[in-house]
Design brief:
Elements: H1 6-19, H2 23-39, H3 47-55, H4 69-81, H5 84-92, H6 102-105, H7 111-123, H8 128-138, E1 140-141, E2 144-145, H9 148-159, H10 165-183, H11 194-199, E3 201-206, E4 209-214
Antiparallel strand pairs: 1-2, 3-4
Helix pairs in contact: 1-3, 2-3, 2-8, 4-5, 8-10
């Protein structure tokens, strides 16, 4: 697999954070940790590669405040650096099962750039790493992990519905379910802070029993 080392990947992210600071940087780190935690329980996957790919999935945001164009920026940057497999997830984390089109994705690039993405997506068959990075992206925020359904609602409130919204939601849930079936446990069982970040509560101890305390 043609990807940078972890040290190189961290350096890319640090440079990008200087160029365009924001919660997306911590989001990328959380997604990377989730990818590692899941992949290390699946013998057919390389946990270190999963970490690196997830860490760099949003690296295109180094270019600034863009919507879906960040996936192409990331692809171009990683290709220039000589890492086509890292470039690949920069695109595939945005498109699980539907082809990019201007109407549904509020495309903020040019028509030629959109055509390139359409042709690229038609040329590949998505693999376990594409799906894992997309899953980890979909349950990671800049503050930690949350339920997939909460993240779907959050993204929908920010960007709105589009023609294939329901189809895509079902695909996200299917990807989640497929990984849980392979793991033999809940994805959330492998990640800290899901309750706190989803519901705004923190867990504590009281008289030897777990209790729930509302966060201030």
């Amino acid at each position: 697999m043609q990807i940078p080392t972890r040290i190189q990947a961290e350096a890319y992210l640090e440079e990008a954070a200087q160029m365009n600071p924001g919660l997306w940087v911590e989001h990328s780190r959380y997604a990377a940790k989730a990818a590692h935690a899941i992949a290390q329980r699946l013998p057919e996957m390389d946990a270190e590669a999963a970490y690196i790919l997830a860490l760099l999935h949003d690296i295109g945001r180094r270019e600034g405040m863009f919507n879906l164009l960040h996936c192409l920026h990331g692809y171009q940057f990683m290709q220039t650096e000589g890492f086509p497999d890292a470039a690949r997830v920069c695109v595939t984390h945005c498109f699980l099962s539907t082809m990019p089109n201007q109407r549904q994705l509020h495309w903020d690039g040019t028509a030629n750039e959109l055509e390139f993405l359409q042709e690229y997506m038609q040329s590949i068959t998505q693999n376990d790493y594409d799906h894992l990075v997309l899953l980890c992206d979909s349950i990671s925020t800049g503050n930690g992990y949350c339920l997939l359904e909460k993240r779907i609602v959050d993204v929908t409130l920010r960007y709105g519905l589009y023609e294939n919204s329901l189809h895509d939601w079902r695909s996200y849930i299917k990807t989640h379910t497929d990984f849980e079936s392979r793991l033999g446990c809940s994805v959330y069982a492998l990640l800290p802070g899901v309750v706190e970040n989803t519901f705004g509560f923190e867990t504590g101890e009281n008289d030897g029993r777990k209790c729930i305390q509302k966060l201030p």
